[in-house]
């Protein structure tokens, strides 16, 4: 949250400059206490770690919850130590809307059934997203926040102690001794930043693993849905299958392989082949890709993998061809067909 930055009112770089300046003022230019280069480098490294941790944490929070109003609300609930109200995420809201709409259209209709199936899948993806957000908050954001609000604040307090170790009323040697003691404490705290980097690396690995699981689950849910929609007797769903198959060729997810028919169009299936057929008066053999139930007497029901004859009829919609199986004839959707040579 942006509030994390504001809560760190003291800046390590400013405190360091004040420490050096205060030393010069109290001890004089000729006898000033120099902070060694190692301590200075450690301080710069800690400041760099703090700034980058804030930046990564802020952008991760934006990724997990893009709505700034919701982020502010969750922050306030956290500060008030109250439980954040459970709300549906976008996938779950969409899924619920699809299920309700599908129920109104009728689960027995192709469109209504498809909407319900899509809605259930969207809710599954929403559940996977919820698990991803919870895992990321616990294993990634919390350790980052603990560093900013815990370890780094302790470092700032120690640096402040170096400044206040000087007093005009104190003996110079006592002042120098106290400064050296505080500097050593600060050095030890700053050297602990290395272990912080190692810990944050493990947290980053956990975050990547959670993100991989989320996308893999979502991908598998969509693959399963695509298979279910492929058998629906609807031009609407078949058109979606065509676009999904065409676009799927550029997607590579090795951990969850798709069948060859889903990843790429078959060699015989192409817009040019159908275009040539529509411009000719002949007929071609075609293999049926999916089962299709005729929606009316003018259509022909199909069985996956059967071979039929298809031809173009003047005035027919470009998404359809005339199919023949023996003495049976009827319209068939081209997206269910693969033209054969």
From TrEMBL:
Residues 24-238 form the BAR domain. One of its GO terms (biological process) is membrane organization. One of its GO terms (cellular component) is Golgi membrane. Keywords: Apoptosis, Golgi apparatus, Membrane, Mitochondrion, Mitochondrion outer membrane, SH3 domain. The keyword Mitochondrion applies. Residues 281-341 form the SH3 domain. The keyword Membrane applies. Its main location: Golgi. It is a peripheral membrane protein. It is found in: Golgi apparatus membrane; Mitochondrion outer membrane. Belongs to the endophilin family. This is Endophilin-B1.
């Amino acid at each position: 949250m942006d509030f994390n930055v504001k809560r760190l009112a003291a800046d390590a770089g400013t405190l360091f400059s004040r420490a050096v300046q205060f030393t010069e003022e109290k001890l004089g230019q000729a006898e000033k206490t120099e902070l060694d280069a190692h301590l200075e480098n450690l301080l710069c490294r800690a400041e760099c770690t703090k700034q980058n941790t804030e930046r990564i944490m802020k952008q991760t929070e934006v990724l997990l919850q893009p709505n700034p109003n919701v982020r502010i609300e969750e922050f306030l609930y956290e500060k008030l130590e109250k439980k954040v109200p459970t709300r549906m995420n976008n996938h779950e809201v969409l899924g619920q809307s699809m299920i309700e709409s599908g129920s109104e259209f009728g689960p027995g209709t192709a469109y209504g059934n498809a909407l319900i199936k899509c809605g259930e899948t969207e809710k599954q993806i929403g559940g996977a997203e919820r698990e991803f957000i919870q895992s990321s908050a616990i294993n990634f954001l919390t350790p980052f926040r603990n560093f900013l609000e815990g370890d780094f604040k302790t470092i700032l307090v120690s640096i402040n102690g170096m400044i206040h170790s000087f007093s005009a009323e104190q003996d110079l040697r006592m002042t120098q001794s106290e400064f050296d003691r505080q500097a050593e404490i600060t050095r030890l705290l700053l050297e602990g930043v290395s272990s912080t980097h190692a810990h944050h690396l493990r947290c980053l690995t956990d975050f990547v693993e959670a993100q991989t699981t989320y996308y893999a689950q979502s991908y598998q849910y969509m693959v399963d849905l695509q298979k279910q929609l492929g058998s629906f007797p609807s031009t609407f769903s078949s058109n979606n299958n065509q676009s999904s198959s065409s676009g799927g060729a550029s997607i590579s997810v090795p951990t969850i392989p798709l069948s060859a028919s889903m990843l790429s169009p078959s060699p015989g299936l192409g817009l040019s082949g159908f275009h040539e057929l529509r411009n000719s008066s002949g007929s071609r053999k075609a293999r049926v890709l999916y089962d299709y139930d005729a929606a009316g007497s003018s259509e022909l029901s199909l069985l996956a993998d059967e071979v039929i004859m298809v031809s173009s009829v003047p005035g027919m919609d470009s998404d359809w061809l005339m199919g023949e199986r023996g003495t049976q004839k009827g319209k068939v959707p081209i997206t269910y067909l693969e033209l054969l040579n």
